[in-house]
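Hi P.,

Sorry for the delay on this. The queue was packed all week, but I finally got your sequence through. Input first:
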Amino acid sequence: MNQGGLKNMVVLKNLPSNIVEEAIIVLKTNKKIKQVEKIEKEKMTENKDTKTREDDYILKEAEMLVNTYISKLEDKKKTREITNKKEKQKYNRIKNYAYISSFVILIESIILFIR
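Then the structure:
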């Protein structure tokens, strides 16, 4: 079996989000990490410790990517709400002007018919 075309993937489930249920992160091929973040304080054997550090680093990086994506979506939603409020105000203002002008025209036409 040829494994040259396979890619490393991480699947994130149970994310604390209303938007994203599951995220799949595809990793670059055979990248060496210069500095690994320390996550666990407990000491393990060297093989297990190295593996868990690398796994935790990958998970942290994937979580960071998902979090930035979610925050960008939330920022877009906030700006959309602001523009919608401004557009609603403009629409209501134009609608009120139309009501007032039609009322004034109605009154003037009644006055003209009475004379």
